[in-house]
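Figure caption, in words: inputs first, then the predicted bound structure.
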Amino acid sequence: MNNITVPLIEKGGKAVLNKLCNLFGNKRKWYEDLCEYYGVTPRQAKELGPRSATRKPELPASSTANTVSGMTMAEIWESRPRNTAEEIYQWQKDLGSWSAFRQCYYHRSDRFDWVANTIPADGKYCEYACGSAPISNWIAENVKDRVIHFTTVDVDCEHRTFGEWRLRRRIERSGRPLTLQALIVRPDAPLPLKDQYDVISIIEALVLIHNPLEVVQHVTEHIRKGGKFWETYTVMDDPRTKNWISFRQAQEQRPAVFDYIRAKYKLLKGPDPDTPKDAGRRCWEKL
Ligand SMILES: C[S@@+](CC[C@H](N)C(=O)[O-])C[C@H]1O[C@@H](n2cnc3c(N)ncnc32)[C@H](O)[C@@H]1O
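Bound structure (S-adenosylmethionine present):
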């Protein structure tokens, strides 16, 4: 090992090494799909990505979404009533391309081998609440030793549409027999899964889903015995979102969701969900 590599690793530098590989390798950059779909420059994609409570970004339109500008995320939430499932799902639509930029930026240095390594050859994987489908996209591009059958699920919104567009293209370009079923959650309709899965993930989403117990029960019915469930379910203490019905209900239902999960699964990896301020990532095995 040379003098540069050692201090990087000593600094817990896996993330640093990932960043350097992304920077100097010829891998696809995190903003390339955004630039193509929304006709923005890499610099604009970088400006539109970071999280901030006070930002009022000028979000570009696409063939599937209108421009959104001059409002904070909270103002968009407050621009209509948000009581019913339909009104809550409409928020994701009202955000236009916001979440596509935000989540691609947020995951810009992430690898998803932790999910990929739990999916068997010819296995079925479902990315629930997928948004721009960061995990499925990463797997379709990086996992070459297995054929995987993808299902993505989200409400009807631009984030989902962009995610499906890029995943279909990635699958097509892989030249391999990967498959995709893109499902949509509709208000006041039964939840959409039909098949049995080897692995389902719900990442960065339970915290804003208004009916998390129903969703977790639904995905559990669709994971085979011995299959894996990956989740994150952050404990939120943000005064801004305390009064937003979906965020509030997500926190109220959190203890019941984990009672249910503990009864149906064994925890394989990750922190105890009762850890104060939990923001961890867990893998559960279905009993
Ligand atoms: C913060 S994003 C996370 C997206 C993706 N999992 C990621 O890690 O980038 C939350 C996603 O949850 C989706 N979502 C919200 N309510 C949902 C519901 N009831 N069912 C399915 N997806 C939902 C949103 O549309 C959004 O795409």
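The mean pLDDT is 92.
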